[in-house]
């Protein structure tokens, strides 16, 4: 009997070490694991996939790369992304996620909350607060490198989240310092639009717009402070310096929408037709009334528009 066991061990051990026995054991978990992060890959992905957003590309590249490199960051990474519809706010979360997790946005470690969908009933706010606190705590305690995306954050819930964003060693034995929180919001879109339009009218190069240009960051702060719907929660975040980066997304011009159409043709495995793409882009609505410089819906609905130009096979 003893020698039998010995024989089995003798037989299995070399095989086990060779073939990564423990990998097979871990297989189900491993499928939804972290990628080994590479900032060059993130940079290429951002530059290739996101159009007309030089501030966002630079800021996200630096912020995420430094954060992923740090073995012991002092707090969670917190990004607040602002801009109008269709300019790439959701898309950049996808790019970040697919450079961190093998399954990208589909990873069980990425949690997206859409205010109107996940927290629809005002009278149930207390229940949502409790639930959200447990979810964040539970998920980060299982997997420290978790990511939470809030699309139009509900003002009431910010107090629930605030402790997780702060400089703390731990909350009930769990450290949140490896987690990533991203807020997406329309707040400030008019300020961003005005600054961008102003540059355009003066004939300046769009790429020269910086977050400090014409006090854009200060203006966004002030707007966040004073906006009746958002002021309360944002002001407490601003006062306590819990948000690491405010990232403005600029309105898109015709050439960027054209790039979106070309990319969309690629995704649909069509031959990329430069002139057709131009027609489709030109057909989107633009503002302001006189100059028609910026796309009202950004690149949103570009695909639907394009379908109208295609001949049925
Ligand atoms: C993690 O978050 C999800 C919601 O995204 C929730 O359904 C789940 O219960 C949470 N897990 C834990 C362990 O709290
Ligand atoms: C943007 O500019 C327009 C016209 O100059 C002005 O009416 C509007 O108040 C500005 N918006 C913001 C948020 O500054
Ligand atoms: C495009 O082609 C690739 C590779 O041939 C395929 O994996 C993908 O599903 C196709 N996409 C569409 C939208 O047809």
Distance between the termini: 72 Å
* Ligand types: 2-acetamido-2-deoxy-beta-D-glucopyranose
| Strand line-up of the largest beta sheet | 2-3-4-1-5
Q: Outline, from the CA principal axes?
A: globular
Radius of gyration: 23 Å
Task: Identify the CATH architecture of the largest domain.
Answer: 3-Layer(aba) Sandwich
What fold name goes in the CATH topology slot of the largest domain?
A: Rossmann fold
CATH class of the largest domain: Alpha Beta
The number of helical elements comes to: 15
What's the pLDDT, averaged over the residues? 86
Provide the structure class: alpha/beta
Percentage of residues assigned to helices: 40-55%
- Uncertain segments are 1-27
Quick one: CATH superfamily of the largest domain? P-loop containing nucleotide triphosphate hydrolases
* Number of domain modules: 2
Strand content: 5-15%
DSSP E strands, number:
7
List the secondary-structure elements in sequence, H or E.
HHHHHEHEHHEHEHHHEHHEEH
The main β sheet shows up as:
5 strands, parallel
Domain Torsin-1A C-terminal: 252-309
Organism: Carassius auratus
InterPro entries: P-loop_NTPase, TOR1A_C, Torsin
Keywords: Signal
